[in-house]
Amino acid sequence: MSTSVMNNERLVELLVQRATEGLNANEQVELNRLLADGNYSDADQFDETAAALVLAGIDEEEPLPSSLRSQLERQADAFVPNSPSATVTTLPARPSAVPPSKLPWLAAAACAALAIAGWWPRAEEEAGEIDFLAQASADLDTLARARERLLAQATVMQWNFKPTDDPAGRSVSGDIVWDAESQVGYMRFRGLPTNNPQEIQYQLWIFDTTRGDQYPVDGGVFNIPAGSSNGEVVVPILAKLPIRNPGLFAVTIEKPGGVVVSARERIVALAQNSG
Amino acid sequence: MTDSVLVKVAQGDQRAVRACIDEFGSLVWSIARRFTRTRADAEDAVQEIFMDIWRSASRFDPAQGSERVFIATIARRRLIDRLRRSSNQGTTTSTEEIDTLAWADPGTNAETSAEAQTAARAVMQLRPEQRRVLELGLLQGLSHSEIAEALQMPLGTVKTMMRRGLIQVRELMGVDAQISDEVQES
């Protein structure tokens, strides 16, 4: 039976904030947890109202520039709709996408014994960014404690990160914990280099075996703050689509803000189910 | 057969993927231009938004709302994410730009969708200061803190006005839609 979000004041507060100015990492994790607790039919109501108001504020639509239209049409032609009969091809979002045959990811994927047919359109509509300032200022002890509490749950899984051949991934260790029931998880890293978020950011991708390997779920864009490279960093996972059966977690280096489709050039950490 | 281009994308119709650009390109571009600082930013954002639209098409339910609201919702989420990532969020907005962005009586403009007209009528019923908070947040993309600073209001008041304003608009839109249905039936 569905219930209304209006019965939960904190949930309303978070949903209004999502609809107006967005959420930071901790708020997004909290919202995910609250939404997972109930079957809400009206969770999108504030987003939809805000969208209708934005539509009302547009007097006259500006035509799409022709150069952008051409780019979008190329993008459209490369996109294969997700119908039951559709096959998935490699889907470059940018003309500069590196050919799959040259990519180190394929070797890593082969080691992972997974047949990845293509890479990685974002599988949902929301970019799961972990706000840098929020993350930097977040109490790492709190995240570490939250991770420990999660580990105590009977349903939690824990996989180790493996290093990769990428220069930034050679010294990576750590693990990933994920609780399928609450849809909450954390990554713990050692040896992942500090990044300048104006230049690059890390992005997590989650392969859910029930969704097909072509469509990994965006697990969030995040940073490793200065001064933490040699220590331990705990990062919350922001999977906005339900993850039913994770088979592989992969961390890539991307442009600031993350990408819709990864060029697969730099994979710095992998964690898979070895069982 | 549905005429919804999103439903067709969800059904695997390759032609509908391109048709989305024809149908919603100018809408997405117009929204993106409002929430980005440069033309290049807007172009990048539009490409991301269309990928999101195609990938999310299966979530669209014609019984629950219009395609335009669905598209605008996806576009806003992506643009809010980009705004949050921007270290200069809100700093380039001039007072003049803020003042020019406001809702007006929708009248009977055929270019405006039914939801937009309903929303515009609803928001015009709010108190002026409450409408101003929504204008700055939704049309200009200011954060709650920036609105508090611009209007010399406590942050908590801004948050409360934003929440109550959205709830009121939602309720008023519901009433408006109900009246429209009754008029059509009679």
State the helicity of chain B in percent bands.
over 70%
The secondary-structure class of chain A comes to alpha+beta
Report how far the terminal alpha carbons of chain B are from each other.
28 Å
Q: What form of chain A results from the Cα inertia axes?
A: globular
In the CATH scheme, the class of the largest domain in chain B would be Mainly Alpha
Q: If interface size is counted as residues with C-beta under 8 Å from the partner's C-beta, which chains form the largest one? A: A-B, 64 and 80 residues
Name of the CATH homologous superfamily of the largest domain in chain B: RNA polymerase sigma factor, region 2, helix turn helix motif
CATH topology category name of the largest domain in chain B: Rna Polymerase Sigma Factor, Chain: A
- What is the quaternary state of this protein? heterodimer
- What about the largest sheet of chain B? none
Task: Describe the structure in brief.
The complex is a heterodimer of chains A (275) and B (186). Chain A has 275 residues and is α+β, with helices and mostly antiparallel strands.
Write up what this structure looks like:
The complex is a heterodimer of chains A (275) and B (186). Chain A contains 7 helices and 8 strands. Chain A is of the alpha+beta class. Chain A has a 4-stranded antiparallel beta sheet. In chain A, α1 runs parallel beside α3. Chain A is globular and about 55 Å long. The two termini of chain A are 36 Å apart. In chain A, 46% of the residues are buried. By secondary structure, chain B is mostly helical. Chain B has 2 domains: 95 residues, Rna Polymerase Sigma Factor, Chain: A (Orthogonal Bundle); 75 residues, Orthogonal Bundle (Arc Repressor Mutant, subunit A), CATH 1.10.10.10. Chain B has 9 helices and no strands. In chain B, α2 packs across α3 and α2 crosses α4. The longest helix of chain B is centred in the C-terminal third of the chain and has 31 residues. The radius of gyration of chain B is 18 Å and the shape is globular. Chain B starts with a helix and ends with a helix. About 7% of the residues of chain B have low confidence. Classes of the chains: A alpha+beta (275), B mainly alpha (186). Chains A and B meet through α1, α3 and α4 of A and α2, α3, α4, α6 and α7 of B.
